[in-house]
Amino acid sequence: MRIKNYLKPVVGALLIIFFILTTYYYWTNSEDYVSNIFPPQVDNDLKFFSKNVCENVTKAEVFSDWKKINEQALQLNERYSSELLKKASFVIEQLKKNQQIYTQSQGEGQQFQYYSKNLKECVNRTKISKLELEDIKNKTQQNIDQEQLAIQEISKSISTHQNRSKVLKGQQLEKQQSLDNLLDTLKGLLDQKDRLLRSYKNETELEEYQKELEEKIYYITKEMAEQEQNITASKQMIQEQQYKFNEINQKFEKVQNQLHDLKSLEQYFSQDDLYIKEDQPIIEVIQEYSKVLADRRENLKILAEKEKDQIQKQKNIQALNEIIKAQQISYQMYSSLKDIKFHCNQDDCIIGTSLENFKLSDLKEEIFKKQTYFNQIYSEKQQIEFILQKLMQLLEDQNSYHQINKQKLNKLIENQNFLNVTKNKSEELSKLNKKYDELEKQRKQLQAEVDNLIDQANDQQHQIENEVEKYNNKQITIESLKLDRNQKLNEKNQELYLQVKDCIKQKKIYENFEQKQSNLIEKANEIKAVIQTEVQQIESILNEYKVTYKDLHLQQNYDIQSKKDL
Ligand SMILES: *[C@@H]1O[C@H](CO)[C@@H](O)[C@H](O)[C@H]1NC(C)=O
Ligand SMILES: *[C@@H]1O[C@H](CO)[C@@H](O)[C@H](O)[C@H]1NC(C)=O
Ligand SMILES: *[C@@H]1O[C@H](CO)[C@@H](O)[C@H](O)[C@H]1NC(C)=O
Ligand SMILES: *[C@@H]1O[C@H](CO)[C@@H](O)[C@H](O)[C@H]1NC(C)=O
Ligand SMILES: *[C@@H]1O[C@H](CO)[C@@H](O)[C@H](O)[C@H]1NC(C)=O
Ligand SMILES: *[C@@H]1O[C@H](CO)[C@@H](O)[C@H](O)[C@H]1NC(C)=O
Ligand SMILES: *[C@@H]1O[C@H](CO)[C@@H](O)[C@H](O)[C@H]1NC(C)=O
Ligand SMILES: *[C@@H]1O[C@H](CO)[C@@H](O)[C@H](O)[C@H]1NC(C)=O
């Protein structure tokens, strides 16, 4: 290819510009460069701004249309090539400066990376430690939670057992109360039984005894009936004898009186002053004696009236009175003499002569006869009296035997009564025994139920004790888990604290470097801005001088190829 001479400076300038632009392009697009200077974010907490700057630079649309620039370059003329070269050299100079900064930052960048890595690692470690801490917290908490859950279950179980135990105890108390009542009843029955047993008799014996009693009662009743008949008979006989006795007694008294009267007469007529003769009738003697007494009385009466001497007069009156008395006796004798029966009639027959013939010898004979009769009647009376006495004795004996039998009967009836009561008691006893056996059966059943309830309650109590032991063990486990956890957490926290402290140190170092880098970036940015301005100016120059160099077209193609190769 041929290149005209005047075109040589232009071509040179273009080549330089091309170099500048490629370098610039390379620089603006190099991520490595950027990332070298500005390492990727270490932590959310650390702020990195380098990327912004980088982006800002890349965004510059200086080389948006390389083709257009190329075309414009063709229109450049010599006149402006020197200015372009000047500007190009300035840009190169600036790029060199930038290269210097780059080299510096490269060097420092490694150190920076080292610190950054340290910081990152520290942060990583811290993060890991934090996670580990969390993990420990989580895991230990999980263990504790598990144990606590187990404790809750145990508590629930305890509560259930306690409930069951309470219910069982309630049931047990209720049953015990019934049992106690039953025991009281049983005790009462036992007392009753004892009481009844004391009067209990063998039933066969009781029957025999009852028969015996009935027999005895039968015979005694029979005998008593006979006795009563005999008593009635005795009473009747006594009555008969009594009647007889009364009769004979009457006769006896009469005869006795008669005998007495006769004896009085005999005694009277035996008086001396009567001068009675054996063969003279008594009635005559009495009449004579009465006349004598009457004369004497007349004389004495006169004498008494005449007598002056008081003493003699008194004597006379006394004598008169005696005579009067004698007269009276005489009269009595006369009367009783007249009373004497002179006719025989049955056994009361007396004197066999008349009153006019009745002499003293008759009287004596009569008294003898009367006495004999009296003796006979007396003897009869004595006999009846004896019989009566015997009968009375018999009645008395009969009555007394009857009385004895009556007492015996009463005793037998009493025994029968007692026997009935005893029989009743033995019936009661057998009833009581039956009842007792029944209640005893109930008691055994109830006792078994109570025992069962007690067993169940004890079982619940054992279970509660077991659960409580488990509970306590779990509590101990939890305590030890908590201790262990606290220890681990403390250790971890200590580690973490040291790490954070280390990280802060690392961060300070890092930040120092960052500051340095930031300064470099600022510088680089300034250079960038300058280059940008220059490139813009170059662009505007190129625009201003739209030179059309058709032969540059080839060159342009070549350049594009070169750029692509880059
Ligand atoms: C990047 O450009 C934006 C505007 O496009 C600007 O606000 C920002 O400050 C720039 N950042 C740097 C580091 O130059
Ligand atoms: C940070 O830790 C993660 C794992 O947690 C690991 O994959 C990564 O490589 C670590 N980074 C550094 C710089 O140690
Ligand atoms: C801790 O446990 C919770 C749930 O209990 C879980 O969501 C979390 O991921 C756990 N963290 C670790 C670090 O294991
Ligand atoms: C225990 O009994 C009470 C009532 O007596 C009841 O309210 C409660 O739920 C019961 N608890 C258990 C654990 O069975
Ligand atoms: C009652 O007594 C009789 C003999 O006295 C005897 O044979 C019988 O076995 C007794 N019965 C009872 C129940 O004791
Ligand atoms: C009753 O009188 C009769 C005849 O005198 C005699 O045999 C019998 O033993 C008497 N009975 C009693 C119970 O005294
Ligand atoms: C005793 O019992 C018998 C029959 O068991 C009866 O005939 C009798 O009247 C009773 N006696 C009394 C006093 O109850
Ligand atoms: C037993 O005696 C009681 C009173 O002590 C009485 O009530 C009951 O009826 C009597 N039973 C018989 C079978 O006699």
Automatic annotation (TrEMBL):
Residues 130-203, 238-265, 422-530 form a coiled coil. Keywords: Coiled coil, Membrane, Transmembrane, Transmembrane helix. The chain crosses the membrane at residues 7-27. It comes from the Eukaryota. This is Uncharacterized protein. It comes from Paramecium sonneborni.
